Amino acid sequence: MKDAIIAKLANQAADYFGDAFKQCQYKDTLPKEVFPVLAAKHCIMQAYAEYHQSILAKQQKKFGEEIARL
């Protein structure tokens, strides 16, 4: 898959995990162990998106942007 597509998908997944985390905070039916998992997955997907955006910047010879995203 191309890095741009992977970055967009990972960014969207991070948004979904963030939304799920926000929605689950107001529910008492879920176990407390779910919250750190959702927060971690949100951060992981954001990092994954930034990593693939940095690869895309490297291919376009935008080295400053590449370093900033890493």
Automatic annotation (TrEMBL):
Span of domain BRO1: 1-70
Example GO BP: mitotic cytokinesis
GO cellular component, one term: endosome
PROSITE patterns hit by this protein: BRO1
PANTHER family reported in the protein's UniProt record: PCD6 INTERACTING PROTEIN-RELATED (PTHR23030), PROGRAMMED CELL DEATH 6-INTERACTING PROTEIN (PTHR23030:SF39)
Protein name stated in the entry: BRO1 domain-containing protein
